[in-house]
Specification:
Length: 129
């Protein structure tokens, strides 16, 4: 049985510092957390895009409770106007940055891909206004 079969990826973060508050909150609620690729990014934060950031993993048995906590405290995407991105479909203000990385070019050079947003309420993917 591989390690990934035991874990659920709660989210990915561009920098290790971005995940620390969520990690602390989950641990304070008794949920064990594993940060995959944390040490790599601590030694070289500039490769974050290339490896897909730091991954926040929890045991699958803790998935529902961890999602509940994460959704209470997570930071949603903010537009250039300083306000949360509003979904054009359902009008929710619960979006996060989304990268498709469909082509080999964007897999090798993800920082060139235009940022899109995925609504966490209805799942629609949109481009910024």
């Amino acid at each position: 049985m591989s390690m990934n079969e035991n874990y659920f990826m709660l989210g990915t973060f561009e920098f290790v510092a971005d995940v620390q508050i969520i990690k602390g909150k989950l641990e304070s609620e008794g949920i064990s957390v594993y940060l995959k690729d944390e040490n790599i990014l601590n030694s070289d934060p500039l490769i974050s895009h290339a490896i897909g950031g730091v991954k926040l993993l929890v045991y699958k048995k803790d998935k529902e409770r961890a999602l509940e906590i994460y959704n209470e405290i997570r930071a949603y995407a903010i537009g250039n106007n300083g306000k949360p991105i509003k979904c054009p479909n359902c009008k929710a203000q619960k979006s996060e940055a989304y990268y498709e990385r469909k082509s080999i070019f964007y897999k090798l050079f993800p920082f060139f891909e235009k940022r899109k947003y995925k609504c966490l309420n209805c799942g629609i993917i949109t481009k910024p206004e």
